[in-house]
């Protein structure tokens, strides 16, 4: 909770950051190589890979830079991923901005989710103060749209399986490129049932 408050206080004090100046049309061509996993328009059909359509350009840029950084440092910096690290190494800074501009301009397709566990909605909207779990809505909003200026990504309508994979990675610190370690702090307090329920609920958000 303290880390969340710090992040929001910093956000309140800063001016608008320089926005990415990517070219979406150029990005469409450059993103062809990404389509095998993420879909032509960023709507991945494989649930272990994220939907990139409609994601904030600044968040996509950060992740690609983090993937590239990890690949260059043997995982000592950034976000380590053997597949994405290799892909990001081939991209220039302009390529990254163009690809991010393209995917952010696309429309995410949200598949209707049935039998959503009540626990998922409860944790997303209210957290669990007895366990020190902050409500997801505080950073990601009621519809999972996130807050671009704060670096909180859009997660609503994302594949449940991908969300589950990432929450588990944050929990065991295999992913540690989150702001002030906030996601790691929260995820490590979640049980496997919590993660399953949250992933299902978040994937239903439109």
From TrEMBL:
Record GO terms (molecular function): electron transfer activity; heme binding; iron ion binding
GO cellular component: periplasmic space
Subcellular location: Periplasm
Coiled coil regions in record: none
Record: residues binding heme c 1: 34, 37-38, 84
UniProt keyword list: Electron transport, Heme, Iron, Metal-binding, Periplasm, Signal, Transport
Secretion signal span: 1-20
Chief location of this protein within or outside the cell: periplasm
This protein's name: Cytochrome c
Post-translational modification as stated in the protein's UniProt record: Binds 2 heme c groups covalently per subunit.
Pfam family, one: Cytochrom_C
Binding site for heme c 2: 136, 139-140, 183
Organism taxonomic ancestry: Bacteria, Pseudomonadati, Pseudomonadota, Gammaproteobacteria, Alteromonadales
Limits of the Cytochrome c domain: 22-107, 115-206
Membrane-spanning parts: none
């Amino acid at each position: 909770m303290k880390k969340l408050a710090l992040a929001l206080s910093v956000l309140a004090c800063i001016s608008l950051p320089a926005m990415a100046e990517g070219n979406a049309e150029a990005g469409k061509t450059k993103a062809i190589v990404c389509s095998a996993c993420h879909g032509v328009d960023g709507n991945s059909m494989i649930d272990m890979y994220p939907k990139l359509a409609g994601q904030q350009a600044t968040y996509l840029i950060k992740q690609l830079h983090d993937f590239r950084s990890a690949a260059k440092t043997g995982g000592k910096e950034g976000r380590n991923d053997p597949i994405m690290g290799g892909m990001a190494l081939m991209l220039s800074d302009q390529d990254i901005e163009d690809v991010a501009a393209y995917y952010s301009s696309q429309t995410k397709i949200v598949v209707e989710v049935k039998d959503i566990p009540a626990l998922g909605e409860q944790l997303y909207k209210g957290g669990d103060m007895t366990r020190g779990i902050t409500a997801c809505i505080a950073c990601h909003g009621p519809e999972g749209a996130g807050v671009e200026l704060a670096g909180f990504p859009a997660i609503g309508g994302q594949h449940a399986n991908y969300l589950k994979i990432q929450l588990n990675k944050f929990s065991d610190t295999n992913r540690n490129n989150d702001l002030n370690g906030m996601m790691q702090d929260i995820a490590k307090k979640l049980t496997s049932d919590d993660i399953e329920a949250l992933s299902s609920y978040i994937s239903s958000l439109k």
